[in-house]
Design the sequence.
């Protein structure tokens, strides 16, 4: 999985009918030092993430392994909201 | 599968249903000489790993096969510890 920060959401009324009632969030990818990597993904939210929250997202066919995205054209899903993480015992991020 | 070194831990109380109790570790993928091969990533831990352990990991859809609850959105998973590498 990758670290990311939710920076916005996508509103789309015209889309593949199979993904009609999904919450699509724009996630800026972060590196383990909590820095922007300059890349982003549009991911389905499966845990109630909000804008500004730091999350983990899974990609590829693993992203279809949720009840709502099973057999749907989805390749990125937010599967955790991060409280904190540490590298070599040093806290790099902690949710306010 | 690929070799990795556990370099950190992630705490996330709000996770996808079925991932309760699954620990999330920050893993630095390495080669047989323990040199980094790509950027660190986060893997579910199915092998009771600790900081500094040399492990091997599964990626993609198969990653969740090592977990109790298999139908979960996990794309990296630590599946074993390395005692020795002969290369």
Sequence:
């Amino acid at each position: 999985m990758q670290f990311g920060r939710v920076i916005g959401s996508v509103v789309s009324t015209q889309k593949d009918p199979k993904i009609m009632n999904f919450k699509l969030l724009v996630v800026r990818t972060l590196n383990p030092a909590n820095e922007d990597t300059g890349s982003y993904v549009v991911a389905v939210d499966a845990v109630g993430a909000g804008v500004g929250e730091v999350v983990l997202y899974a990609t590829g066919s693993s992203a279809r392994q949720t009840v709502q995205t099973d057999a749907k054209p989805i390749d990125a899903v937010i599967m955790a909201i991060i409280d904190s993480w540490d590298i070599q015992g040093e806290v790099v991020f902690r949710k306010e | 599968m690929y070799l990795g070194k556990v370099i950190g831990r992630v705490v996330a109380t709000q996770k996808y249903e079925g991932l309760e109790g699954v620990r999330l570790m920050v893993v630095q993928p390495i080669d047989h000489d323990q040199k980094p091969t790509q950027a660190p990533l986060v893997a579910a831990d199915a092998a009771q790993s600790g900081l500094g352990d040399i492990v091997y990991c599964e990626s993609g859809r198969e990653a969740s096969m090592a977990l109790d609850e298999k139908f979960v959105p996990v794309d990296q998973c630590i599946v074993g510890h390395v005692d020795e590498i002969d290369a």
User: Anything to note?
Assistant: The mean pLDDT of chain B is 96. The radius of gyration of chain B is 12 Å. Residues 2-81 of chain B form a domain with the OB fold (Dihydrolipoamide Acetyltransferase, E2P) fold (CATH 2.40.50.220).
